[in-house]
Amino acid sequence: MSKNFLEPASDHVLVVDNPRETTLDGISLPDNVRQQEMAYGTVVYVGPDTKHTKPEDQVCYGPYAGKTVAFDGFEFRLLCEGQIEMYIRKTQ
After folding, report:
1. Is residue 1 over pLDDT 60?
2. Residue 79 CB: number of other CB atoms within 10 A?
3. DSSP secondary-structure letter at 68?
4. DSSP designation for 3
5. Best CA proximity match to 69, nearest among 9, 3, 6
6. Could you tell me if 9 and 80 are in contact, meaning their C-beta atoms sit under 8 angstroms apart?
7. How far is CA 39 from the centre of its chain?
8. Which whole-number Å values give the CA distances from 74 to 46, 79, 92, in the listed order?
């Protein structure tokens, strides 16, 4: 029996969000501050038309970017490649 998997179309990427900090030095951040923060995640799959993004890239995007997708008990975020605002690269 074959298993189902998600494959993004065109220039879309599938990202797993990194956990967000809700405190700063033990002080809980108010919701309006957390909503202004950027979200970080790890790219899991890329669509066939992506130009700059690869699986395992660490990326930064707006907190409301993309759509949330729940599949097989996991939660992903589906973004257009253009919604990625920054790549987090390691120095060589």
Report:
1. no
2. 24
3. E
4. P
5. 6
6. no
7. 7
8. 17, 16, 33
Q: How far apart are CA 72 and CA 23, in angstroms?
A: 30
Rounded CA gap, 61 and 66, in Å?
9
In the sheet with 74-80, reading across from the earlier edge strand, the strands are 67-71, 74-80, 12-17, 39-46, 58-61, 84-88
Residue linked to tokens 């996991």? 74
- First-to-last alpha carbon distance for the chain, in angstroms, is 44
pLDDT digits (tens, 9 = 90+) for 45-60: 999 999 999 999 999 9
Q: What is the mean pLDDT of the chain?
A: 85
